[in-house]
Amino acid sequence: MNEKERESKRLFLKSILYGSLTALSAAILYPIFKFLKPPQQTEVEVSSIKAANVNDLEKDSGIIVRFGNKPAILIRNANGDFKAFSATCTHLDCTVQYRKDKGIIWCACHNGQYDLNGRNIGGPPPRPLEEFRVVIKGEEIFISKNV
Amino acid sequence: MKKVVIIIILSFSTSIRVFSQDKVDQCLECHEAIGDQPSTLFKNDIHQTKGITCSDCHGGDSTSDDMEKAMSKTSGFIGVPKGDNVSKVCTNCHSNAQIMVKRYNSALPWNQGDLLAQSVHGRLSISGKERIVKCTTCHNTHGIVSVKDPSSPIYPVNLPKTCAKCHSDAKYMRTYNPALPVDQLDKYRTSEHGILNAKGDAKVAECASCHGSHEIRSAKDVKSKVYAINLPRTCSTCHSNPNYMRGYKIPSDQFEKYSNSVHGKLLLEKNDFNAPACNDCHGNHSATPPGVESISKVCGTCHALNSELFASSPHKKAFDQRRLPECETCHGNHEIITATDKLLGVQNGAVCKWCHGDKPESKAFQTAKFMRELRDSLVSEDKNALLLINEAEQKGIEISDAKFKLRDAKQALFESRTMVHSFDRSKFQEVIDKGLNVTSTVSEDASNAIEDYFFRRWGLGVSSLIITIVAISLYLYIRKIERRQKSTV
Amino acid sequence: MKNYIQNLYKWIDERVQLQSLVEFMGKKYVPVHRHSIWYYFGGVSLFLFIIQVVTGILLLMYYKGSEDLAFESIHFIMSKVEFGWLIRSIHSWSANLFILAAMIHMFSVFFGKAYRKPREVTWLTGMLMFFMALAFGFSGYLLPWNELAFFATKVGTDIAGDIPIIGKTILEFLRGGEDVTGATLSRFFGFHVAIFPGIFTVLLTIHLLLVQRQGMSEPLFIEDEEKYEKKKMSFFPNFLLRDLLLWLIVLNILAILAVFFPWELGTKADPFAPAPAGIKPEWYFLFMFQTLKYIPANIWFIEGEIFGIVLFGIAGILWTLVPFWDRKSFRGERNRFINYVGIFVVIYIILLTTLGWLT
User: Fold this and answer.
1) Nearest to C259 among B398, B456, B475 (CB)
2) What integer best gives the mean pLDDT of chain C?
3) How far is A103 from chain C (nearest CA, A)?
4) From start to end of chain C, where are the E strands?
């Protein structure tokens, strides 16, 4: 092996070493940077969530909001008071909605009916809806599980 | 002579006592002579025929013709029993098996007094001094006759009136239970039972057949015969007895069918009170089969959406014209089983086919076929999405968001079943499309998640390769410098 | 390129005398013999600890240490944050490997009697770090606030509560109250990310400085061997590069474990739910947990559990203080007794852990 060959071999080894080291740092840094990039939904949600702003809801209306892994329904009655319940119908897990014409919470699947206190008043639901706590801070409405 | 007889009575057995009965009962003797009502009535009393005398209830000495002596406290005279003492006088014998069986050879149950005390009527009356009902309230006082005697107030044909004496008296009932209706008798008279009963049929159900007699409890009491869970069995005591029902021209298998139905299973097996018992469709006091046109209204008390949709569909008119019993035509009556997709469509076993099967080119046939196809596609898409989610989960990838979304597809599946009753293509398709939208996004999410799984494997492969190369070249590098070190040393 | 690096090196060297450090490390030698392999486990432990620090800091960006949010935030990390699954799985896996590597390191030092004079303080700091690592593991286990961790913590702190006299105080101190609640979680979170790392860093610095200062110990028995020829290699670059090579392999193992066996999250803890069957602590506590199970309810007039805890306490203290009572090694003589003790402990731990694992 002459000097030239040895030199080129050394250079080759060096470039492999540096090249792979660069690739390695890239392979390590890539997941880290990706991890640090804020995800679409920027924060975890759960047992207490900001459901809406007071002005988002007219009197005598209701909206469905996501509460952890289940839907919740936030209702503003004709007097302007807020109430929140689990929006999962106690009959077969459909999602309930607010019926303005009847002034009740209503399930489209089997005509389950609940009054605005969450009590099952008609149709097949066997139990009342679970009620959530509503807290209004300034303009924002928060709902949380009753503990 | 009489004294001798008394001594004999006191010291010898009952046979001699029976013998003495032929002797004159001094109480009756005098009271009849003054013509008072109790003694007149007592002449026909069943107790009189069994040899029971005035003194057996009122005490005193019935052998003495001396009024002072016969009705003196020393001879045990108690006069007219008051309040609960009335019932106590009756139960002295009626609750004593010894007396009832041995002495009178009676087949009557001897727990009637206890049952009455535990019943809703056994509670204290408004005066607080006695129970609401005593034996004599229903059975009369001195003219008591057997229940089989048509003149008895508790003879089946007479019983409704007897109960109604209190129960139809709004003013009286208000003092105990203001919420209790007082129109039961009126309703009863409109029922099949009540009509036949009024005609003198003693076999049909009257108040006691369902509510019990001495043991009557509130309908909300779990031990009551008419408590929701117990009611079907109560009705079945007559209606499932073919011998008993012979002559009424109705089947006797309703209970059996009901027990196998979706309603029966819910109520009897799962004790779900939302499921209807017999009375929820037939009425309770006014029990009668619902008329052909009113079936959808009756079912609609619970299945409101289906009934509403049906009523506004073209089927309503067609069914009415042909005198078809609405819901029942497709779903049956007592043996309603859980409706499945099999009912929909034009294949064998589908109910649409019964009427529309012979004209494949008709709009109805096409609609039925179309609806079934749409429904099938949603079912399979939903299943597909769930499979993808499961696969992703099995591969260890977090996918609870997609799972959450899939709830909406389940909802669309439920809604579409209801929407079938509109028999309207576009309305049905709207619901199905809603579901299909959900399943397609969920499937996409799940597929992405599964792809992510392979991405992870690939990523690992690539990084492992890089690490291996670095490791090898590092190894070579170490060898190189150590060789150099050696050569320099 | 090369010139730039040289210039930068020169720039720094002029200011902090980097060259002397390099020379110091170059003059430091690592003994080479057939047991040299065990020297690497200290380095592996160090590497895994560094990974713990890096991934731990990354997880802190999203983790929320409260009863309401702990479980959900980890769920969030696993599902919403890109590579969150990887970072968390690596954190969990490397925690376990860290304790394993530290254990091997500890036993190799024990059998090599490397704790003897003059390295008593190195051993002490090492033991303290080992206990710290166990505490890291115990506190970190609860942070996801899942069912298993919740009940394991309940049992674990319960056992701590059986310590005579001070037990109740310790229990309440650990739990932040009578029961395992959100307060416990907050506490454990604080321990795990602030207090422990702080103490650990101090111990680690002392430990590493001492190792550099005193060099690696040679086992006594090697010196006794007749054919033994003293060989050595430079710490820098030879040993350090070999260390790096091993680190790479460990890194790859971690990646494989994280991808093929992602750490599970389980179900959220519900304080009112009945305890699920088969509550087990992490494997490194299993042998103690299993022992407590076998001890009869009463020994003489002491409660069995208390007896066990006291026994383990005494054993732990004796083990930690071995440099001070092993006088033979201190004088440079062979001490077979220590080997028997070590072998007994290793077999005991392996046996009981296996039993605990299988039941």
Assistant:
1) B456
2) 88
3) 33
4) 29-32, 231-234, 298-299, 302-303
